[in-house]
Structures are given as C-alpha cells and as structure tokens.
C-alpha cells in the first residue's frame, strides 16, 4: 500500500536537507534511548522506514543482524554505500514487501500512521508475524493532543543551513491526521505534504488488541511549546509530540 504522497514527500524532505547518511550526536543519543527501551540484547533487527540507514549503523555493533526497509531508492543507495557487513538494506513498501525471516526486534521510528485505521491494523499484523514469539517491537505513535495545538504553525527546519526550506503543520480534524507541508520559498507551488494518522494511548491500545498485540510500555518523547517556541526534551504522555509503544504477542 504505497501512499500517493509518500515517495514525493520523503524524496523532497531528504534532498532539501542535503543529508548524506552521516551519523550525528542525535543518532547516538537516539540509539542509546532505544537500547534502554528494548531492555535486552537486540539480536536480529528489522527496521521499517529506515531512511538512509544511519540508525541501523548506529545500532550495528549491538545487533547480530539488521534488515532495513526503505521506500526511497536514493536513500537505500546511500544506506548500501555505508552499511556494515551485518546490515541488509532493502528497498520497498513495507505494507507489501515480502520478508520470510522473523526477528527478535522490530523498529518503526517516526512514520506510523500512513493511510487509514485498516492500513495500520494490517501493518501491525505484519509486524506481529515478523517478530519471534518472544520478540518485541518499538513503534513511534503521533499524539493528537499535541498536533491539534500545532495546527497552523510555520517554521524553517534548518534556517541556518537551508534558509529557503519552509514547512507548515496542519491538522485534519475529520480524519485525525497531522499534516506536514514542505516547500522551497522560490518554488511554493511545488509543495509536498505528508499525512499521518494520530492515536491517543487508548486508541492505539485498542488497535493493537485487534492485531493480537499487547502494549507492555509507553515511552513519551518531547514536546514543542509553541508559545515560547522552545522544544522540551521531557514531556508527559498527554502532551508529547509522539510516544513509543513497546509491543509483544499476546
């Protein structure tokens, strides 16, 4: 189920920030948090929506093997150029791609919510089949409470290095989706948007139950204070931009 917006949006986002797969302090801290949240050796890992493979490379020393799945060929090419010997980058849509192996750990960071509830349920069922009976998955979920507050906010993702790239957040109240629109100031007519379904902790719990999955932990991420225009690294589950769920088979 490739969304009709996903490829154009993620290509534009990646090219706009001229990223080349480098591992930064952000990835190092991100990986440290993930290791703690998984709470055991990573073993074999499947990462969905893997971008250019930088998180996988950051985790490679702690994993037996890592298989990454990314939709955009350009990003997969970067991942392949930089991957260590225990990383296998795959190009494809993880709603459709065929993967016969099972894994100890499945990761899906910053992207869950493409499509409608039935699409998320189908993906959760696929994830359930991809991890071992005693395996776990960590998934980022967008929190509607925060994104309703973000509706209408505009900014430059990196005003120093990329001053011509702008973005604006919106919220589709009917479908409960955050809308993230990017454009270049010299080509505003070529804007692209992503649309991600948001779920409260209660809503994602109900969806996971339908997929025969139990949520065994919630990990709130940070939140943006739009009045002070300041990001808070620590936020409650109610106010965070997104939160991670740790799931297992029930």
From TrEMBL:
- Gene3D superfamilies, alphabetized: Vaccinia Virus protein VP39
Does the keyword field hold Methyltransferase? yes
Domain of life, per lineage: Bacteria
Concerning SUPFAM superfamilies, the annotation shows: S-adenosyl-L-methionine-dependent methyltransferases
One GO term in the molecular function aspect is: methyltransferase activity
- Swiss-Prot/TrEMBL GO biological process terms: methylation
What are the record keywords, sorted? Methyltransferase, Transferase
DNA repair as a keyword? no
InterPro entries registered for this protein in UniProt = Methyltransf_25 (IPR041698), SAM-dependent_MTases_sf (IPR029063)
Methyltransferase domain span: 45-135
Protein name according to UniProt: Methyltransferase domain-containing protein
- The protein's organism comes out as Salinicoccus hispanicus
């Amino acid at each position: 189920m490739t969304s009709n917006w996903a490829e154009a949006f993620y290509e534009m986002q990646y090219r706009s920030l001229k990223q080349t797969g480098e591992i930064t302090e952000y990835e190092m801290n991100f990986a440290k948090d993930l290791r703690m949240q998984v709470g055991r050796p990573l073993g074999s890992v499947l990462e969905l929506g893997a971008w250019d493979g930088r998180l996988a490379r950051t985790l490679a020393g702690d994993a037996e093997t890592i298989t990454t799945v990314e939709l955009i060929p350009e990003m997969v090419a970067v991942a392949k150029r930089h991957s260590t010997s225990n990383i296998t980058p795959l190009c494809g849509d993880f709603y459709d791609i065929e993967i016969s192996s099972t894994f100890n750990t499945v990761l899906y960071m910053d992207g869950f919510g493409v499509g409608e509830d039935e699409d998320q349920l189908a993906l959760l069922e696929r994830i359930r089949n991809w991890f071992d009976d005693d395996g776990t998955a960590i998934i980022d979920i967008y929190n509607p409470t925060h994104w309703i507050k973000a509706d209408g906010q505009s900014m430059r993702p990196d005003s120093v290095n990329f001053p011509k790239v702008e973005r604006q957040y919106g919220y589709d109240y009917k479908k409960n989706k955050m809308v993230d629109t990017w454009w270049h100031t010299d080509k505003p007519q070529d804007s692209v948007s992503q649309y991600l379904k948001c779920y409260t902790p209660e809503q994602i719990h109900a969806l996971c139950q339908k997929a025969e999955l139990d949520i065994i932990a919630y990990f709130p991420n940070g939140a943006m204070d739009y009045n002070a225009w300041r990001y808070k690294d620590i936020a409650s589950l109610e106010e965070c931009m997104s939160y991670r769920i740790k799931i297992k088979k029930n």
